[in-house]
């Protein structure tokens, strides 16, 4: 430990009163150069990988959308203008996919964020067993979506757990539907399991938001005799403004990217009632090997995501 | 202790009831999965209409688990996923922290532009990249050292490296490390420099040992998507021996095996992650909370 007093001028290096200072300090120039070189050497691996696997594919995707590229093809890639987009916007399956993910998002965004907030409020205050409940609420999140999809595929059978429960709870009055094979119930079924899996994730983000609200505000509200509802309405809710927008946007973007559940459970069926943008992109780009058309779909998806991020910027802008 | 008023006690009991309701809703499918993995199909369906569906009673055995390993190379799938996740996590921590170190603590010219460019990649969801990326990795060359000769091949499809290398560098990991490094006093670097330490030594012996929480967060946020990876290997892996667990289970399911066996496989790939979660609960929760800032 050096106990030397630092002079008020921090810009100058103080000659340490060490008994044996190194005989020759490296000169300023080589040291500067060495810092540049080692710095760039440290940045290079990550930068090169990001360039190769994020920047280039992103630019390529943009370019490929205007060509006829196929995944494996002996023909050279040719520019075809907006052909892919014309085809895309006249494809009823694409519009159906857009409608499906919108339906999914419109239900999932409010319900999932609402349930997640309820869960966060339930375990926000310390009580005996709070850890136990938090662990249980979070359990579905560490279960992979593929496993969750297979598990619920089993529970959604005509003679599965869900229908047996409905029947038992209604004393045999309700004869449950064949959830995943009925165009009317397939999407709601996927919505339920998606919310079940992901609510715990957003509970944690709500919790972080809740814990950032100063306890003094609640004490002041209590002194003023505010009821619990009023405390929530006038302290908690405004305090969560930032968290709220963030959660809405992340859930919306995740909802638009719906894929795993559909791929495992329904393959987009029955009658396209569960197909999604990404599922269509994979179907054309991978199964039919039409990279160009899939790139066009990905580009439209990206524009949607950008639009939502822009709306978020607008909603969370600093008001002067 | 003060006597709580009756209405208050009622509301406490009510809150607890709601907590339990949510807990049951969150846990019942997982309990059902674990319990069913121990039963033959006939009993699973027999128990379905009663609470026995959630109790490990009756004809209990590990036969379903044995069947999983008999029918498919499940051990191979598990080893693949463990290997892929472990390598991605280790290399990811190294490459991303090294980059964040230089960006945060060194006077490198042009680092502002680089950092901005890295952060810009955060707005691109993986799904938008996935399809062009498949085409792109199929054009990439790869070399293999065969004895003493270097052999070049074209196309990364159906390999291990295609499941690892694209996911090592991660803008969000760099961001998290950068944030954390900024909170470590720079005077420590100066002190080490005066002692004659080079930059890499400062990184390895001063900064990284102090960055445990950031490392844990990045490790978890890299591990979970690597273990759960599905969309990507679905497109780039064909050979059975290269499959990760999530592709393995879907393939297993399509063999029309019994439900008990599917549940056994599902439990097999879920329980390790749950155990990790319970062991490192605080780190898990922190990493999710920190991923909230990604917007």
Attribute tags:
heterodimer; A: 320 residues; mainly alpha; MetI-like fold; 13 helices; 65% helix; 0% strand; disordered N terminus; B: 295 residues; 2 domains; two-stranded antiparallel ribbon; 67% helix; 4% strand; globular
Architecture of chain A, according to CATH? Orthogonal Bundle
Number of helices of chain B: 15
Number of strands of chain A: 0
Alpha plus pi helix count of chain A: 13
Estimate the global geometry of chain B from the Cα principal axes.
globular
Shape of chain A: globular
Mean pLDDT of chain B: 88
Unreliable parts of chain A? 1-26
Specify which chain pair forms the largest interface: A-B, 96 and 92 residues
Distance between the termini of chain B: 46 Å
For the sheet with most strands of chain B, the description reads: 2 strands, antiparallel
Question: So, CATH architecture of the largest domain in chain B?
Answer: Orthogonal Bundle
CATH-defined superfamily of the largest domain in chain B = MetI-like
First and last CA, distance of chain A: 48 Å
Description:
The complex is a heterodimer of chains A (320) and B (295). Chain A is mainly α and 320 residues long. Chain A has one domain: MetI-like fold (Orthogonal Bundle). Helix content of chain A is 65%, strand content 0%. In chain A, α1 crosses α13, α3 crosses α7 and α10 runs antiparallel to α13. Chain A is globular and about 75 Å long. The N terminus of chain A is likely disordered. A two-stranded antiparallel sheet of chain B has the order 1-2. In chain B, β1 and β2 form a beta hairpin. By secondary structure, chain B is mainly alpha-helical. Chain B contains 15 helices and two strands. Chain B is 67% helix and 4% strand. Chain B has two domains: 61 residues, no CATH class; 230 residues, MetI-like fold. Chain B is globular. Chains A and B meet through α1, α3, α4, α5 and α6 of A and α1, α4, α5, α6 and α10 of B. Chain B: Pfam families: BPD_transp_1. Chain B: Keywords: Cell membrane, Membrane, Transmembrane, Transmembrane helix, Transport. Chain B: InterPro entries: MetI-like, MetI-like_sf. Chain B: This is Sn-glycerol-3-phosphate transport system permease protein UgpE. Chain B: Belongs to the binding-protein-dependent transport system permease family.
